[in-house]
Amino acid sequence: YAESQIYQIMKHQGKHYLATEAGLFGIDVNTGALHAYSSDLGGTIPTNNVHSIFAESEKLWLSTADAGLMQWNVKSDTVATYGRANGLPSEVVYGILEDDKNYLWISTDNGLSRYNPKTSVFKNYGIGDGLPEFEFNRTSFHKGPSGNLYFGTIDGFIKFDPTHFQEDSLRNNVPLQIVSLSQDVSDSSKVIDVYS
Questions:
Q1: Which 3 state secondary structure label does DSSP give 154?
Q2: Which of 60, 81, 83, 102 is the most buried (most CB within 10 A)?
Q3: How far apart, in whole angstroms, are the C-alpha atoms of residue 153 and residue 158?
Q4: What is the dihedral of CA 149, 14, 73, 9, to 10 degrees?
Q5: Confidence category of residue 29, pLDDT binned at 50, 70, 90
Q6: Confidence band, pLDDT 50/70/90 cuts, at residue 2
Q7: What is the pTM of this model?
Q8: Taking 80 as the threshold, does the pLDDT of residue 174 lie above it?
Q9: 50 - beta bridge partners?
Q10: CB burial of residue 101 (10 Å; 0-12, 13-18, 19+)
């Protein structure tokens, strides 16, 4: 595994978890023992390319290069997989962030998606909703202290406040709009707000 790219390292419940292009690994903090969790290496995770990890008590959410979004219950060692069949816009998932209302925001190579864990429903956003680009980048996502979410695309980045998003309803079918978008201009050292 020495030649595998490591995309993220996260400490959770006594282990350092590594999201790598060779799968998901865990290193026991106390013993230093290395555990492989991908199915090709004898584990439960059915992919060998994990981009990122988001921890939620006994569960780890995994973004993958080829198998969508996964929820791995560490305690029971069971995996739920979410992909196009479940409403996700792509099987290639890069980043996972949780907003202050416990929605998961998921960057993919085909737009941005919001997942409601209470209803198991995905809401997808693309260029028609204000995104400058469909494709995002792995390891390029961040939640700021004020709750703003940042995601890197292949041509800059977006920043938005998820509390400003409106839900669709039967009475008022208004699509979600990004109300604040900043884009890095590659030929300039400045960041511009394209909605100013």
A1: coil
A2: 60
A3: 7
A4: 40
A5: very high
A6: low
A7: 0.83
A8: no
A9: 64
A10: exposed
Tokens of 165: 């998003």
For the chain, report the end-to-end CA distance as a whole number of angstroms. Answer: 47
* Structural tokens at position 65: 């290069």
**Structural contact between residues 109 and 134, judged by C-beta atoms closer than 8 angstroms:** yes
Distance, CA of 95 to CA of 80 (rounded, Å):
17
The 10s digit of each residue's pLDDT in 38-92 is: 888 888 899 989 999 999 888 999 999 999 999 999 999 999 999 999 999 999 9
Q: Is 87 helix (H, G, I), strand (E, B) or coil?
A: coil
Tell me how far apart the alpha carbons of residues 12 and 101 are, in angstroms, rounded to a whole number. Answer: 22
Q: Judge contact between 149 and 162, C-beta under 8 A.
A: yes
Alpha carbon 140 to its chain centroid, in Å, reads 10
CA distance 110 to 57: 29
- Burial (CB count within 10 angstroms: exposed 0-12, middle 13-18, buried 19+), residue 111: buried
Cα gap 58→47, rounded to integer Å: 20
Q: What one-character-per-residue DSSP string does 122-139 give?
A: EEEE-GGGT-S-S-EEEE
User: How many angstroms from the chain centroid is the CA of residue 147?
Assistant: 16
Question: What DSSP character marks residue 195?
Answer: T
Q: Two tokens at 179?
A: 């109300």
Closest residue by Cα to residue 17 from 70, 46, 55, 64:
55
Three-state SS at 42: coil
